[in-house]
Amino acid sequence: MIFIPTLLLVLSPLVNAVAINTKPPCNDPTYLSGIDVEQACKWQYGPEWRSRKQYSILGWYNCWDWRCWLDYDTASVNMQRYCEIEHDMTESQVRAECRGHSLWGWQCRKRV
Fold it and tell me: Where is the secretion signal located (predicted)?
């Protein structure tokens, strides 16, 4: 029997719930975040840019990470600026489970 770790997120009423989905596997960071990564890529780099998964090492564990892509160009997503400017929120980290280990993901949170 193959064990697939579950994604554990603690959601509060202050969290922007856009794009949060807890059903897919935990090692896909789309679901570690309340941020629509595809829209963040388009917002930051232009409408022709897309988001794409990239296998990488987060901490000591092999997990999926998200990058922005255009043809052969790649760039990272500035989630803090996207949260602040597009949603008038601050970014913050949220603990999540990946391959049996606790890692950090991102979400937009309302300013207090």
Answer: 1-17
Question: pTM higher than 0.90, yes or no?
Answer: no
The model's pLDDT over 36-72, given as tens digits with 9 standing for 90+, comes to: 778 888 888 999 998 876 655 555 555 556 678 898 8
What are the φ and ψ backbone dihedral angles of 49, each rounded to 5 degrees? -80, 150
φ and ψ at residue 44, rounded to 5 degrees: -80, -35
38 within 8 A of 50, measured Cβ to Cβ:
yes
CB atoms within 10 A of CB 57: 9
34 contacts 28 by C-beta, under 8 angstroms:
no
CA-closest candidate to residue 105, choices 15, 41, 14: 15
Could you count the other beta carbons within 10 Å of the beta carbon of residue 17?
A: 11
Query: What sign does the dihedral 65-67-73-78 (CA atoms) show?
Result: negative
SS (H, E, C) 71-100: CCEEECCCHHHHHHHHHCEEEEEEEEEECC
